[in-house]
Design brief:
globular; 67% helix
Length: 141
């Protein structure tokens, strides 16, 4: 379902809008938008990681992608409502959220400063290589 939703979102979100709002020149506003999107994204990795792929293909820079994933993992709104407040109490949950709030922005700023390039393949390879480093298909021949 997450992959289907991501495919629909890719068709609905105009590429120039994502590039303008979350691209390399979006500044702190792009990181804030990515943080907000990560905060409100429900579900587990099967919902959030396809969304990261959609944002990356649509023109978001790596700082926004890191801010999104960091916010999703640290500040997930549904996790706070369903697990943290009932189990740990509202005081603890609010304190944890306040302390964790700047971390996605800092992670996005650091990711923008690292001198690596993010290159996405145009399409998936036709077949897997003969030997995979983790001992997958073709290993042990």
């Amino acid at each position: 379902a997450g992959v289907l939703l991501a495919g629909f979102l890719q068709g609905l979100l105009p590429r120039d809008l994502i590039t303008r709002r979350m691209g390399a020149r979006s500044g702190l506003v792009g990181l804030l938008l990515a943080t907000l999107a990560g905060l409100i994204t429900p579900g587990g990795p099967m919902a959030s990681f396809p969304m990261v792929l959609v944002l990356a293909v649509s023109g978001a820079d790596r700082g926004a992608l890191i801010a999104y994933i960091t916010a999703w993992s640290l500040l997930g709104f549904q996790r706070t409502l369903v697990w943290e407040i009932p189990v740990l109490g509202a005081d603890f949950a609010i304190l944890r959220l306040l302390v964790s709030m700047p971390l996605p922005l800092l992670a996005g700023l650091v990711a923008r400063r690292i001198p690596l390039s993010l290159v996405l393949p145009e399409r998936l390879p036709e077949r897997l290589p003969e030997r995979l480093p983790h001992g997958g298909r073709g290993a042990g021949r």
